[in-house]
Structure formats: C-alpha cells, structure tokens
Design brief:
Blueprint: H1 2-9, H2 15-22, E1 29-30, H3 31-38, H4 42-54, E2 58-61, E3 71-74, H5 76-97, H6 102-124, H7 138-150
Antiparallel strand pairs: 1-3, 2-3
Helix pairs in contact: 1-2, 2-4, 3-4
Amino acid sequence: MDIARRLARAGGITATEWRVLGGVLDEPHSVAEIARRMGMTRQGVQRVADQLVDRGLAEYRPNPAHRRAKLLACTEAGHWAIRRIALVQRPWADRIGAQIAADELNETLTTIRRLLSTLDADEAAPALAGARQAPRTVTQIARREWRRRHSSSTWWRPSAGEA
C-alpha cells in the first residue's frame, strides 16, 4: 500500500517493519506468534525482525515458555519510530475521515466485522467429507480454470485438414 510506505518513511522504517514493530508495541511476542497474528509467513517476519534488531529498533528476549523461540520486543528507538509515524498518520487519517460521514464509516466497520466473523467461522468449520477443497492461491485458481476449460475440449487436436 503506497500510503503505508509514505507514512512509514516518517519513522525511518519500511511499511513491513512498521507492521511487525506494531505487533510488539504493547508486549513481546515470538516470531511465530507475530506471523500468525499478521497473516505473514514466519520466515518473512524473521527476516524483518532481524533487520529491526540490527537497527536497534527491536530486541530479542528470552522466552520463558520456549527456550529456542525468543521473544521480539520493541526498544525505545522503535517506540520513537512509531511515534514519528503517528505524527503524520493522525492528520492524514483525520483528513480522509473528514471526507466520509460518520454513519458511513460505522456502517463500513459493521460490514467489515461481519465479513471477518464469517471468514473466521468458515475457516474454523471442518471441511465437508469428500468435498474438494477450494483453491487458495491465484496459481491454484488459474490451474483449476485452465483444466476446466481444456479438459473436455479438443483444442489441442489437429483439425481433419491438418492431420
């Protein structure tokens, strides 16, 4: 998202670093926990966490629940980076919000919450016995569509005049 990149620059970090750092502002979490909460891969969060630690914006702490999975915690420098972002984010959000009526924003929020609840319930529901799983990635969708279009067709067979 372009606006996230622009806002993050105010804090001297990337949008992805902002996202990961935001996940540990209140309390430290393991990389795996951050990845689950943010919908990111563990490896992606690990890479960003290492960058944040190298730059002094975060630090690893011992995890009493797991010896090898350290906790990522925001440092004072990380908090300052987030504060600098907030100084530009707040006026931007106010400017955008002023262009949309409060009742429209509330209706949108209600719809988004309902959509998230529906998605969570669907994800938690056991898969139907014998039902094929719906494709989850663009590649899977494209492959399924290609197979659907070409499985029963004769597009690949030469016509009578070409044989």
